[in-house]
Design a protein that fits this description.
Length: about 850
């Protein structure tokens, strides 16, 4: 079959990136063909047409070029990779077919377009390489150039991926799919060789222009991490086809420096997104984020995902926050300046990858213009961190001066149309501009002169792209037109003419205009290069601005919401006075939240069991303790009147299966798997939050498991544990576990109703109030009455004479033998009752034999 040269060009481009949808630029449109067209028509709702009519129709779909951002966003969100094939020469200048090339391949993890990115969220591309015991992970944020890698024990892979939360993850096509990939992460298969040691090292050394990676701090044991990093970089080179110079270093992430939080804990504590709809609003991050720059917002998310464990590092941040809390006026000024700075991190990345616009350069300039005041404001502060930030703010004076001299006040988004270089910056440009405006002035004068000469008062000069400048005369005055006018075009009411004089000036004007535009573009490229040469200094400055923004935001949060500075200690204790749940507290309005105290560790007991009816506030209380610990370790003040917080090495939080049913996928199996991990991984320095564990199975099963889990954490691990449960029976554990204390949530009974006071009190709840809650929920009275009867009956059977559950009744000796698990005893077998009734004296040996035979049969059956 004969293929047109253009379609051949299309086929070639498509063959080079077969796994991507190809957007083929044709004039003012991007077109898709064949299967791509069908997919795009479906996803984007485009009309499916066909290109050539003949026997072999080519399905085709397309959209105007200026809608690229919108459609690209939809395609990426739908999980596609998109290759963009541009016309790479001017259609006017081209001899024959315009040259076209795939200029980049956009994927979920490599988006850099501002329109497709959430400014407040990092968009990571990761790569994973595993062996039997270890996993190497590398991750990069292309829009800023941050690049990190590390090796982890293989069992930690899923937790680390949950922490990084990449948008796209690379894995070797020969490896098993990393089982740990979360929902919504796109898995991209890469050839196995791209992960190989020598290729990876080669790619990295070449990019960073070094002969060995030693300088980055990688050790012999880090091979997997280095290979993953090489695979990431190789993928970027292949898809971006542009400079990656803003990726200036590969940092070795050191896991030991941060608090370990696993994926399940991140989810159940709703740290960065809510369980219900995955939204940022309503999560801890959403509530504490008072930053005013996108850079600050991203850094805050990073701090929250990686809380610290070294007291000195935490206190360094707390010192800075404390200093800012004490100076509200300073914060106000800083916020004003920070509001005026732009996203320097992403701007620099765009400059270096040659995607910056004149407006981007002017934003760099405006950001630099704010620095001197910011620097002056935080000079001579006490805290080491503020001082360090001040030192890192690099004014880049020469760069700012040349940008200010060169760029107009308002700059456009396109670089080739001119109009952004200030008058007086280039005498050559000024000359060309004079020519243009002089030419335009001449034309205006010419119009007046011609009108007078010919006596046609309404003679006009006009301009269009086809004919250039022309003279327009209405038909009514057609007879007065001078003989030397050359007719060019007839329109509805008028005739259009040109004259040799007009054409001569037109050429001069247009040529000067064209030259000016070209010159402006050249000047733009020079400026862009100058900014690019400052990339490392600008990146450092951007980092300092981000950090300042985070600290000022945390200070604002602390002041506005009455947070206090936590005292960080090494012992495993928690002493909180008037603690609040940071999210609920801010959602329900100031003053509405009932604050609660907590003493945990030492003589106060380290295992706390919180009982109380549903809706009393158990979950809220135990979570707020975990959230406060997290906040403190990231360097934030905490919602309490006072707090002493023993630094945790890990935080675990689990929600019982039925409590998590909302997610629609959690099962008892998942709950137990996660519980097993806690039991295996918790250390004496950990903080464990268990919410209604054991609920997802039958009552006795669940209760037994919960019982054993609490015992294990108490006896074998000895870590701080907060356990919320509606299993009343567990409160009896306080009698046998020395470090366990009961807490309950106060409720007041009021004529058969309950009022929730949300106040945590020492001691066990006296009953579970389930029936009261059922009343609140509108369960019919008949059911409530009947339930009360049944409850009374059950309580009779399971409580001993003193009203204690028979479950925890003790005799003497070791605890293991102490427990009479009467609660768990199976119901009496009917044979026992039958035996009881059997009158032996009146039973013949024959009848006794028959009776035994019958029961034996029943047992077998
Ligand atoms: P439980 O786990 O005991 O069933 P929750 O902790 O889920 O109860 O709390 C139920 C509701 O009670 C919460 O959604 C919140 O509206 C309210 N609540 C809980 N604790 C407090 C508190 N300390 N102050 C104010 N309201 C609270
Ligand atoms: Mg609860």
């Amino acid at each position: 079959m004969l293929v047109s040269p253009m379609m051949q060009q299309y086929e070639d481009a498509k063959a080079a990136c077969p796994d991507a949808l190809l957007l083929f630029r044709m004039g003012d449109f991007y077109e898709l063909f064949h299967e791509d067209a069908r997919e795009a028509a479906r996803v984007l709702g485009l009309a499916l047409t066909s290109r050539d009519k003949g026997e072999k129709r080519t399905p085709m779909a397309g959209f105007p070029y200026h809608q690229l951002d919108a459609y690209l966003g939809k395609l990426i969100a739908a999980g596609f990779r998109v290759a963009i094939c541009e016309q790479v020469e001017d259609a006017k200048a081209a001899k024959g077919l315009v040259r076209r090339e795939v200029t980049r391949i956009v994927t979920a993890g490599t988006v850099t377009d501002d329109a497709l990115l959430d400014p407040r969220t990092c968009n990571f591309l990761a790569a994973v390489l595993e062996n039997d015991t270890q996993a190497g992970i590398a991750w990069v944020e292309l829009s800023t150039g941050k690049f990190q890698a590390a090796c982890f024990p293989r069992a930690r892979l899923s937790d680390e991926l949950a922490r990084i939360a990449p948008a796209e993850c690379l894995a070797s096509e020969e490896a098993r799919a990393p089982s740990a990939l979360g929902e919504g992460v796109r898995l991209t298969r890469r050839p196995a060789w791209s992960f190989s040691d020598d290729i990876a090292r080669n790619v990295l050394c070449k990019h960073f222009a070094v002969s060995t990676l030693d300088g980055f701090g990688f050790e012999d044991g880090d091979t997997l991490a280095v290979c993953a990093a090489g695979a990431v970089l190789g993928y970027l080179v292949e898809t971006q086809k542009a400079s990656l110079a803003h990726i200036q270093a590969l940092a070795r992430y050191s896991p030991g420096a941060t608090l370990e939080i696993d994926g399940a804990t991140r989810r159940s504590l709703e740290i960065t997104c809510t369980l219900r709809d995955g939204a940022r609003a309503g999560s801890l991050l959403g509530v504490i984020d008072r930053t005013v720059t996108a850079m600050g917002s991203r850094l805050l998310a990073d701090w929250l995902a990686n809380p610290l464990v070294a007291a000195s590092a935490i206190d360094k941040r707390l010192d800075a926050v404390a200093e800012l809390v004490a100076e509200p006026a300073l914060c106000d000024v800083l916020v004003d300046h920070l509001r005026a700075v732009y996203d320097l991190e992403r701007l620099v990345a765009r400059v270096v990858t040659l995607r910056a616009s004149p407006r981007d350069l002017s934003f760099v300039c405006r950001t630099l213009a704010r620095l001197p005041q910011v620097k002056a404001k935080i000079a001579a502060r006490h805290s080491a961190l503020l001082t360090a930030i001040e030192g890192r703010l690099d004014l880049c004076c020469e760069l700012r001066a040349s940008l200010e001299r060169a760029l107009a006040d308002e700059c456009p988004l396109v670089s080739r149309e001119g109009g952004f270089i200030r008058d007086g910056y280039s005498s050559e440009l000024d000359g060309l501009r004079d020519l243009t405006s002089g030419g335009k002035r001449w034309i205006a004068e010419y119009q007046a002169a011609e009108a007078e000469r010919s006596g046609i008062a309404n003679l006009k000069v006009g301009f269009n792209k086809v004919f250039g400048y022309y003279l327009e005369v209405t038909h009514a005055r057609g007879s007065s037109v001078p003989g030397h006018y050359i007719r060019k075009q007839t329109v509805k009411n008028a005739e259009r003419y040109i004259t040799p004089e007009l054409k001569e000036h037109e050429e001069r004007v247009l040529a000067a205009d064209e030259q000016a535009r070209e010159l402006e573009y050249t000047l733009f490229c020079q400026l862009r290069e100058e900014v690019a040469a400052h990339a490392p200094r600008l990146q450092r400055t951007a980092g300092a601005l981000a950090e300042l923004d985070v600290l000022v935001g945390l200070a604002d949060l602390a002041r506005k919401r009455g947070y206090c500075r936590p005292t960080m200690v090494e012992e495993s204790i928690l002493q909180i006075v008037d603690g609040r749940h940071p999210v609920l507290d801010s959602l329900i309005g100031q003053g509405a939240f009932v604050p609660n105290d907590l003493c945990c560790g030492g003589a106060d007991g380290f295992s706390l069991l919180v009982t109380g009816p549903n809706m009393a506030g158990k979950s809220t209380f135990i979570r707020q303790v975990a959230l406060m610990t997290l906040l403190a370790q990231m360097g934030s003040f905490v919602p309490a009147r006072s707090a002493t917080i023993g630094i945790a090495d890990r935080i675990f939080a689990r929600v019982g299966a039925s409590d998590e049913l909302a997610r629609g996928q959690s099962t008892f199996m998942v709950e137990m798997t996660e519980t097993a991990r806690i039991l295996n991984l918790a250390t004496p320095r950990s903080l464990v939050i268990l919410d209604e564990i054991g609920r997802g199975t039958s009552t006795y099963d669940g209760l037994s498991l919960a019982w054993a889990v609490v015992e294990f954490l108490h006896d074998r691990v000895g870590c701080r544990t907060l356990f919320a449960t509606h299993y009343h029976e567990l409160t009896q554990l306080a009698g046998v576990l020395t470090g366990l204390r009961n807490l309950n949530v106060a409720v007041r009974e009021w004529e058969d109703d309950v009022v929730f006071l949300h106040k945590i009190l020492p001691g066990a709840a006296d009953k579970s109030y389930g029936i009261h809650v059922a009343r609140l929920a509108g369960v019919p009275g008949w059911v409530l009455e009947r339930a009360k009867q049944i409850l009374a009956q059950l309580e009779n059977e399971h409580l001993d004479a003193k009203g204690r559950a028979k479950l925890a009744r003790t005799n003497s000796g070791s605890r293991a033998n102490d427990l009479q698990l009467s609660l768990f005893a199976a119901e009496e077998h009917p044979m026992i009752e039958a035996l009881r009734l059997l009158q032996l004296d009146e039973t013949s040996p024959r009848a006794a034999h028959d009776w035994l035979a019958e029961w034996k049969e029943r047992i077998r059956g």
